């Protein structure tokens, strides 16, 4: 009799037939028979014919589910995104004395990776070892994937190194895991190791992940090598084409990318976006716009890429116009677009446009999260509306380091030194660690307020307390602070103690700040010492030579002024004229300083 019902379930074609068969099965007392239940659950979980909710109701009435049924349910819950329920079922089966197998663990590990439960993952890894499945390829790969999802490089590396045998999937997870954790050089090293040590051939997933690493490292040489491998060994796909386009564009070889693009028979919106992004990166906005216009379809990413290009190269009116066109076409902007536009307003000082975008955010109920809030704070602060920036900061429900830093920077640039330092302290009380940008803000605040002791303490605390190595901007702020206070000797000693004192890119701007202080305090001796040092550098920065000439002029040393001017002429250095810009009726006008 049991065999007859199992045969009927195998030939069942619909849920209505299934329910009739189930009713007969239950009427003859087979509702707890293991083989029959396995077939019942297998059909009801079938993606094309079954009904998961109905299957779940059956499952709840099974007294002792088999491992087969547990595996079906765990897999189904993971695929539906109910990760915690799947993990709970795993613990339930263990409590009921059911022994997990190599079909159980992969979905459990997938669920753990998706919810980011590190301790749970380590616990299940221990169960894997206890059940003797750590060397099963399917389980081992799933362990690696879980650790990669959790961002635990040591975890997936250890599993990989302990594997007795590795298949292509193992190598792929290793490479993509490093890429996911932004360890791009290690990803490239694993790719090279795979080519040398393994008999496994790279496939589509291998080359796409490896090209991502090449793109991040700007490793054009390896990128070309992978391109050759694709041409000679693999069937070209649109996914590989996108990866190649992205790599060549971001490595500055847009012409090669264009050849690949033109040769692609099938293109998706990602291909068009890669070309737009590539031309934007080169500053060729008209070519980028041409590709944008030719794209048969445009998603939000493509719109963002083009608008961001205009903002990046100060063509703000075109960015706003394109944003308007986007709205007319019914494309709903996301947070990235409004942040891009607010950044453009901040850079240009376009307050009216910024207010209009802020109003648009409110009217369209775009979520003001930490990212959008930070962009609003920066825009209002850079446009001089620090009180509005403070209101937005105070209203933010979720703050992060960037939002704290933005308001501190804004207060500093608007002369609110006390408030900036007050919020710097409050930031740490609230559990947020200041970063290198935060310190630029507070050091700048100290500079403008003449707070030498406070600035000195903050500068030295960077490395001693916060383990942040000062960079060029930090040194520049502190040297400017010392210079303005007339502490030229201390400032000069600081420059000479720099670990990169032979790095021209660092030394030239710092000497420039010190030269400016020498002019203010008429310290000709130090100015000449700095000039001698700068002579070895052969800097083409006109401001440095102009500063030195001003120092000599203040001491009536006109012959030396003439020599500096003559040297500038010999080196082909001209004083760069400044320009100013002003927003008039929503439009921008620029003037050179001599106009």
UniProtKB/TrEMBL annotation:
Q: Name one GO biological process term.
A: RNA modification
User: Its Gene Ontology molecular function terms?
Assistant: RNA binding
Q: Which Gene3D superfamilies match?
A: Tetratricopeptide repeat domain
Q: Which UniProt keywords apply?
A: Repeat
Keyword Repeat among UniProt keywords: yes
For the keyword Lyase, the answer is no
Record's protein name: Pentacotripeptide-repeat region of PRORP domain-containing protein
PPR repeat start-end pairs: 66-100, 167-201, 237-271, 299-333, 400-434
- Write down the InterPro entries for this protein, in alphabetical order: E_motif, PPR_At4g14850-like_plant, PPR_rpt, TPR-like_helical_dom_sf
